[in-house]
Amino acid sequence: MKNILIIESESIIALSLSNFLSKLGYTVTRGYPDSKHTIDCVKQNQFDLIIINIKMQNGLDRIETVGKIRDFSQTPVIYLTGETDRTTLDRAKRTNPVNIISKPFNYTQLGNVIEQCWAG
Asked: What are φ and ψ of residue 83, in 5° steps?
């Protein structure tokens, strides 16, 4: 069973996403809103996928968080974001995500992107 880490600051989206992924048969871990705890969580656990919201919260930049994770892990990442400006998207792309999905997102689309992570 695949283990997915969700980092999402909007609790309603995090819960909905968690329920959706659980129904698809994935093990879901809801992560921490801050960078340090997220990085520690990834270091201490084996995840098959990280789904992370780009939105900065409390001065934390989650693109930088993924960049730090890339120093020790190549776990696939899917960004969810309402931030669609070119600068943000270009920075996110430099961390080699599987995909960047704009909010509001479609669960069918997200499910297809997740399945593609392990196809082929």
From this structure: -90, 105
